[in-house]
Structures are given as structure tokens and as C-alpha cells.
Amino acid sequence: MRQKFNFFFLCFLLVLFAACTHENRKTEKRADPAPVLSIADTKRYNQLLSDLNELKADNCLKNASLGYFIIDITKQDKKTVIAQYDQTRAMMPASTLKLFVTAPALEIFGNPVIPEVTVTNQHSVNWRASKLLRKIGGKLYNHTTKDAGVQGILEFWKAKGLDTKGMYFEDGNGLSRNNAISPKQLVDALYIMTNSKYFLPFYESLPIAGLTGTLHKALRGTAAEGRVRAKTGTIAGVKSFAGYVKSVSGRELIFSIIVNDYTCRTKLIKKKLEAILLRMAEV
């Protein structure tokens, strides 16, 4: 009798193990896929990928941290990863952090806050971003404090399905070196906003390359002029960009790129990153 019991118990364990293994495999399939480009797309993005590889090997970034994430959303029902590098690494974002404050502000307060969000993103006004953060805290928790605002925006993004692991907000404007956001989190947030009823005012609040805001002098007279809308970020040793691109061939991209602890002049690293923005506009 004992041997018979042991036999059936062993069979039960084997079935349980197989079921768990199958469930793990199903879970793995649900994970974000690695970038798989068609032959046509590989040719299309070949120069961009080549330039990104050169950037990784650039002497300016020898002792720096670089992270980027770029996706193609031209087909509304399909999201294709074009390029990624250290995309989940939490990095100092500088003022691209403001995107995580201005987007929730639009959905929480609606049309009355559009002018304030536009000025904040266009000209990267730090005190306005901090004010919006506290305003969110006051609306959601009756406490117009930084901590209440931070709690509010984290809960907002979690509810939207954003993986907030590793994110940290010391402020609402990006000035603190303790802030931490990954390139993928920036892109995921921008992608989430494409399905928001406030996407248009959010999109239009971003500086336009060669024309408006903090990008008004950038890439003027190139293919990127009028085709790149992005939030910029700059503090000592940190340069970042995050936004949207509508390329000359009609491709629609979402991107983020962050550099921490570079040693060359900010003007030089800015030029190198803007060259990547131009390449995206040219695909």
C-alpha cells in the first residue's frame, strides 16, 4: 500500500512540476520581446544603428553611462523595438523627468492646466514643475507637498501599467542628482500617453526641433526641423532627450536617450545626441 501511495505521490509531483514549467513558459512569452526587425526595416535603420554603436564607443562617453530605447509605432497595432542599450538602468534624467509630472497633471486637472503644462515643457520651467507636483498632491491627498505629489504620480503611472521599479523622485523638476528613471520607463510613459484623451495637448507642449522652446536652435535647417518633438534635460554631467519623431518617410518613433557622467563639454555631447535625433528623422 505504501509503495502504491509513493508511486501516485511521485506522479502528482511530476504533473505539478510540468504545469509550473508550462506556466513559466507562458509568462516568458508575455515579456517584452527583443527587437526583431524585418530585412526591410534592418536596411531602413541601418545607419541609425551604426551611429548608435559609434556613440557607445565615443571617447566622450569612455567613463560615462549611456542608455537609450527607441521604438517604432507607425503601425498602431504593432510596437517594434528598434534599438536598446541599458534601457532598464535607472539613471539621472535631468529635466526629462518633467514628463512624469506634466502628463498626470493633464489627466488629473484637464483643460485648465494646459497652458501651465505647455510653458513647463516648452521652456523647462523648474518652479512650475514643482508647483504642478504639489498641486497633484493637494488634489489627490489634500496635502500640497512634494512627497504627496510624488506618491500621486507614482500611483498614476502604476495604474496606467508602467513598471515603476527603480524609479525615484527627489523633486518634480529633475534638478536633483538623486532622481532615477530608466530610458525604457520614459519611452513607456510616452507610449502610454498616445492613448490618452489629452495626448494632443501633451504632444503639442513639447519643444519642436528648430522652432520652439528649448529646441528652437537645435537642428535648424535639417530634416529634423519640425519633425522632432522632445523634452530636453541638462544638469552638470547629465544630458537627456525623450520624445516623438515623425520621419521623412512617415515613420513614427518614440525615443529616449540619457547620458550620465560624461567628461567632455556639454556643447559637444549635445551635438552628438542631436545627431542621433537627426538620424531618426531621416529614416
Short synopsis of the structure:
The protein is an alpha+beta fold. The protein contains 10 helices and 5 strands, in the order αααββααααααβββα. It folds into 2 domains: 1-31; 33-282, Beta-lactamase (3-Layer(aba) Sandwich).
How would you explain this protein's 3D organization?
With 283 residues, this protein is an alpha+beta fold. The protein contains ten helices and five strands. It has helices at residues 2-30, 39-44, 46-56, 99-109, 114-123, 126-141, 146-159, 183-193, 199-204, 266-282; strands at residues 65-72, 80-85, 228-235, 238-246, 252-260. α3 (46-56) packs antiparallel against α10 (266-282), α4 (99-109) packs antiparallel against α5 and α4 crosses α6 (126-141). It is globular and about 55 Å long.
- Which CATH architecture of the largest domain is right? 3-Layer(aba) Sandwich
Low-confidence stretches: 1-34
Outline type: globular
What is the overall pLDDT average?
89
> How many helix segments?
10
Any idea of the CATH class of the largest domain?
Alpha Beta
**Quaternary status of these chains?**
single chain
DSSP strand count: 5
* Structural class by helix and strand composition: alpha+beta
Q: For the largest sheet, list the strands in their spatial order.
A: 2-1-5-4-3
> First CA to last CA: what distance?
72 Å
Q: Tell me the helix content.
A: 40-55%
CATH topology of the largest domain: Beta-lactamase
The string of secondary-structure elements, in order, is HHHEEHHHHHHEEEH
Return the domain count.
Answer: 2
- Radius of gyration over alpha carbons? 22 Å
